[in-house]
Structure formats: C-alpha cells, structure tokens
Design brief:
The complex is a heterodimer of chains A (88) and B (153). Chain A has 88 residues and is α+β, with helices and mostly antiparallel strands. Chain A has helices at 16-22, 37-47; strands spanning 7-14, 26-32, 59-62, 65-67, 78-82. In chain A, a hairpin with a 2-residue loop joins strand 3 (59-62) and strand 4. With 153 residues, chain B is an alpha+beta fold. Classes of the chains: A alpha+beta (88), B alpha+beta (153).
C-alpha cells in the first residue's frame, strides 16, 4: 500500500505567452509537501511539453515576489510563471 | 518622504495625465518632470494596428509601489504619480504616465528616468502587438531573480 504523503494546496497563475501556450490562466494545484518551484514547473512541463522550451525565458514569483527556483512551496502560496515583462 | 501621498494605479480607460500631474504639484515644489509613454504606429518596421496590455495586477501594483518607495529613498523628490493602462490601446494613446515633483529639477529628472527604466524591467505587465497580418508578444525583459533560496535564507 502506498504511503500517504502530506500535500499542500497552492494557486498557480500563468501570464502572457505562457497563458496562451497552455490555455490555463489560473488553477489550484495540490502538491506533495516539500515541492520546490522548479518541481512545480516540471509537473506542468510534463502536462504541457511545449512549456519546456520557455524554461530559460521565464521567472517565477511566490506571493507577489520574484523567487528563486529552489524555493519550497508552502500551503496557501500564490505562484505565478512570468514571461519577460514588456510594460511601458 | 511623502510616499503615502503617491498615486499608483492600473486603469482600463484613458489615463488622465492632467489630474495625475496636478496630484504631485504643491507649493513646496519647484519642478515636475513627467514621462508620457504612448503607442507608436510601428514596431521594427511593421505597421502596428493596436496593442493589448495585460498585468498580474496585484503584483504589478506592489512592484510599482516599490519603485515609488525606492525613488523617494534615492532622490530628493516630493510626490510620485505612476499610472499604467491595461486592455486595448490605439495608436497615440498613453500606456504609461509618470509624474514626479521635487523642490529642484535635477532630482525630478533623475527619479522619473529611474522610475520608467525600472518599471520596464520589473513590473509584471505584458504587451501584445497586433499587426494587419497577425500578433506577437513584445520581446520584453526578464526581471532579475533573487539568489538561490539556500544561500538567501
């Protein structure tokens, strides 16, 4: 029998060309405890392989702050994958 | 330091540049420098039809406020107004407007320049350019990311 793993629930957002590419702008995701932002990206890349080629040209934010990819996700986080910004 | 008097906003209709400019003007000031960014009719030689802007609104507002706080710290300025428009914009319409007041012009020029340069690099807003024969997301800039969480702690 598989061991029960604690999970955390987070909100995940995609913007700009990333949103268009995968057709998802916002969803709630349930992840094993201890998942990093990088790990979260990998889960999406498995679901949407086209995302992989954009890995080098995006940043990630956690609770409205740009974050390092090895940051651990905590329950209730709001995570967003952001393409290069072009405001102004 | 007067950051609680700053006006930071995202809007979906025409930016009222006169109201924004008046907002930063006070008796103690001697200068206002404004930046009016508006939609150009071409992009890399292709005629632009119109633009669409989208934002991660909560984070964009937070980042714009951060910029205002930073220019208050770095330059001897009085007040800041910083407004970005979202949605569909036609040629010639203002997409971003910044006004900075100060007792003396030097600080206002420097702060306004710093504000628009930093906004373009760090505020999560995206521009899509529409042409007669298609549309593309503007190239943009990748915001700087913090160091690894392991070393940052």
């Amino acid at each position: 029998m598989e061991q029960a793993t604690a999970t955390v629930r987070v909100k995940v957002l995609f913007f700009g060309r990333l949103r268009e590419l995968i057709g998802v702008s916002e969803e709630v995701s349930e992840l094993p405890e201890g998942t990093t932002l990088s790990g979260l990206f990998e889960r999406y890349a498995k679901r949407f392989p086209k995302l992989t080629e954009f890995r080098g040209s995006m940043v990630v934010s956690r609770n409205h702050e740009f974050a390092a990819w090895d940051t651990h996700i905590v329950a209730g986080d709001e995570i967003a994958f952001l393409p290069p910004v072009s405001g102004g | 330091m007067d950051s609680e008097q700053d006006k930071i906003a995202l809007v979906r209709n025409a930016i009222d540049v006169e109201t924004a400019t008046r907002h930063v003007r006070a008796g103690q000031d001697g200068a206002i420098v404004t930046f009016d960014g508006f939609v150009r009719n071409e992009s890399q030689g292709r005629a632009t039809s119109y633009l669409e802007y989208e934002a991660y609104e909560t984070m964009a507002i937070a980042k714009m406020k951060e910029i205002a706080e930073r220019i208050h710290e770095r330059f001897a300025i009085h007040r800041v107004a910083m407004v970005h428009r979202l949605g569909r914009l036609e040629i010639g319409e203002t997409s971003v407007f910044i006004a900075v007041s100060a007792p003396h012009r030097g600080a206002a020029f420097d702060a306004c320049r710093f504000a628009i340069d930093t906004l373009k690099k760090t505020v999560p807003i995206w521009k899509k350019e529409f042409f007669a024969d298609g549309a593309v997301w503007a190239d943009g800039e990748l915001p700087p990311t913090p160091p690894s969480a392991k070393t940052a702690s």
